[in-house]
Amino acid sequence: NTPQKHVIGARYVGMFSNFLGVLNHINWCLKNDKTPVVYWGSNCMYCTGRPYNGSTNVWEYYFEPVSELSYIPGDVIHTTYEAPDNTRIYWIFNAQTQPDKTMRSYFYEHIITPFIRLKPIICEKINSFFSHHIKGKHTIGIHLRGTDKKTEVAQVPPLKILQEAQLQAGPNSQFFIATDEQELLELAKKTLKGNVIYYDSHRSYNGQAIHYNQKFPMDILGEEVIIETMLLAQCNIMVHTCSNVSTAVLFFNPELENILLSAS
């Protein structure tokens, strides 16, 4: 284990809880003259045990390596959300502490831009959807997090989120819905006045969290949530509640206007 190498692992949690943990650790590496390596192994929920997009490292199912070094069996793997000095950029359960634009710009410039690069095959899917459905249209992104989210943070009624999004709409606005629950997508289509678009993803039909359901192709689920997140980042404004996905969106586009709704 080379002294300058710092290997960042995964926990058995959702995509963007792990992703924000990676940002925490890369931020620490920059301040401590370490070279980050991201290795998400078999303990990552998106691991299928087979290669996906050319890699068996789950991080590299979706992203390019973050440095020229790589994981070697026997290396110490750091799997905490917090960096080794216990710093963290964001604490999901406190809706009052969403990252401000200064913090977002710092992470975009110093961490996202130099270290976080999507695989070309995923970029192609994002760019294709964007050019066909979003480009040139005033688009309000809405993140509706369903299923197990209610066990983590007090829920905002979905209709309240949709009503807020409608208030942001002009006569030619459309709505991009990112959600893990089919029922919420149907509610949006029924409620919103304007064109409703969405990426063709796997969604829960029974209220159970799909990312804990091994019947689903986990490697593809991981890709879908990344694509939805990157598309939210390209909307004109995002209406959302407290979640790791919407937090990641704010880091991917530090200029994005957003409306955070909380239950309080």
Brief characterization of the structure:
This protein has 264 residues and is an alpha/beta fold. 36% of the residues lie in helices and 12% in strands.
Feature tags:
alpha/beta, 8 helices, single chain, 12% strand, three-stranded parallel β-sheet
User: Average pLDDT across residues?
Assistant: 90
Low-confidence stretches: none
Within the largest sheet, what's the order of strands? Answer: 6-5-4-7-8
Task: Tell me roughly what share of residues is in helical segments.
Answer: 25-40%
- State the distance separating the first and last CA atoms: 47 Å
Helix count, DSSP H or I runs of 4 or more residues = 8
Radius of gyration over all CA atoms, rounded: 18 Å
SS-based class: alpha/beta
Instruction: Tell me how many strands there are.
Output: 8
Report on this structure.
This protein has 264 residues and is α/β, with parallel strands linked by helices. Helix content is 36%, strand content 12%. It has eight helices and eight strands. The chain has helices at 15-31, 59-62, 101-115, 120-134, 158-167, 182-191, 218-232, 244-252, and strands at residues 5-8, 35-38, 77-78, 139-144, 174-179, 195-197, 237-240, 257-260. The strands form two sheets. It has a five-stranded parallel sheet, with helices on both faces. Helix 5 packs across helix 6. The longest helix is centred in the first third of the chain and has 17 residues, at 15-31. The protein is globular, with a radius of gyration of 18 Å. The relative contact order is 0.17.
